[in-house]
Amino acid sequence: MRDLVILGAGTAGTMAANKLRRKLDRNDWRITVVDRDDEHHYQPGYLFVPFGRQDPAGLVRSRHAFLADGVRFVTGEVDEVQAEDSKVRLVGGQELGYDYLVIASGTSPRPSETPGMEGAAWRRSIFDFFTLDGATALREALNGFDHGRLVVHTTDIPIKCPVAPLEFSFLADAWLRDRGLRDRVEMVFATPLPGAFTKPVASSRLGNMLDERKIALEADFLVERIDPETRTLVSYDEREIAFDLLVTVPLNMGADFVARSGLGDELNYVPVDKHTLRSKAHDNVFALGDAADLPTSKAGSVAHFSVEMFVPNFLEHVAGRPMTRSFDGHANCFIESGHDKALLIDFNYDVEPLPGRFPVPRLGPLSLLEETRMNHLGKLAFQWIYWNALLPGRPIPLPTAMSMAGKHLEMQEA
User: Fold this and answer.
1) What's the N-to-C CA distance of the chain in angstroms?
2) Does 414 score more than 60 pLDDT?
3) Ramachandran angles phi, psi of 40, nearest 5°
């Protein structure tokens, strides 16, 4: 009997366990999934909680209920991976041996890494929305906010769902307009990036949308500290941004056990081959989803597309054959823009987000880098797809590799 241990029952870990359970002989393989609790959160829904458009309770379901029969679920905190001995030690002393290990432990916000962020002002004038508790607390703060300076801020990259701060800004603008408060609120979007987004075409389009909504862009702003008494962000180059209400995305980091095990980089992400997701240090260790140091978005779509490629590669690898699939960094993300419209972006390691149609060339029905109601409906529909098809590991009719069909390549070359 061979053992596959998967650390993390989030999107990538759950998908991988369910797909491999169907492929690996139950008489030969035991699959064990470890996570610290039994709560699976639909994290894209956090965005809507501050605006009262999503019930927090509707975003949480049982982790083990989404794992296929024949997958063992262990609730426990990982203390350390002893890769040389192929063992995982849990807090409390329990040990799990493995033949192959998949690290899918994600990434999480760390407000304590920025001086002044997690002090007396935390959840009073400084809020986040990348956790369910944070999004729920922000909902109460927004309901009492009727004038002043609202600053939306990203501490550093990479972060999971890198378009989320833009989405929050657009939704906040629309929410304030609907309440007749927009003229009483000054909005600032502060980012460590040189523009609104990482890639030129998308950055220009999204930067124009900030301008249209009179949201000031403060680019290349890398925060050094926050002064909670004066309510001021201070950057390493000594620029200052005052705020009355700060909505920040704290530094994101991978799991602490990755660092304790000597498996991570400076942000606790596991260095992997970006095409096979296999650890650069250990042949029997893979990292999926946000836990890997992939040079693409930390997004649910990346978890989805990479797992689709990982499963056949893993089957080849354990059979002693060369892995023949290559992950191209494919990602696509909806960007809510307010008033029931959204954009969609689709890109990979080599191709930046471009205008066009998706998934069917010229027909869509979704539009790339264009605000449409259909894109908004697509984002809302994804929640049902997530629970009922994606997590159970059922087939979804989308190409794993990015296609250039339907994209306006001349925009990239201009």
Assistant:
1) 56
2) no
3) -100, 120
- How would DSSP label each residue in 98-127? -SEEEE---EEE-GGGSTTTTSTTBTTTEE
Q: How many other CB atoms are found less than 10 A from the CB of residue 329?
A: 20
Report yes or no: 241 and 151 within 8 Å, Cβ to Cβ.
Answer: yes
The string of DSSP codes covering 141-154 is: HHHT--SEEEEEEE
Q: Do 212 and 119 fall within a single domain?
A: yes
> What is the average pLDDT across 248-270?
97
Q: What is the pTM of this model?
A: 0.94
Q: Is 263 contained in some domain?
A: yes
Residue pair 296/327 in contact by the 8 Å Cβ criterion: no
User: Does some domain include residue 329?
Assistant: no
CB-count exposure of residue 382 (10 Å: 0-12, 13-18, 19+): middle
Let me know if 255 is exposed, middle or buried by CB neighbors in 10 A (0-12, 13-18, 19+).
buried
10 Å Cβ neighbour count for 119?
A: 15
Q: Has residue 389 been placed in a domain?
A: no
Query: Which residue among 303, 319, 335 closes a domain?
Result: 319
Last residue of a domain, one of 270, 290, 319: 319
Structure tokens at 324: 């023949």
Please state, in angstroms and rounded to a whole number, the distance separating the CA atoms of residues 155 and 132: 19
Q: Domain count for the chain, please give it.
A: 2
The residue ranges of DSSP E strands in 19-120, in sequence order, are 29-35, 39-41, 60-62, 71-75, 78-82, 87-90, 95-97, 100-103, 107-109
pLDDT of residue 281: 97
Write the DSSP symbol of residue 52. Answer: T
Residues 53 and 97 in one domain: yes
What's 60's domain CATH number? 3.50.50.60
For 75, phi then psi, to 5°, come to -90, 120
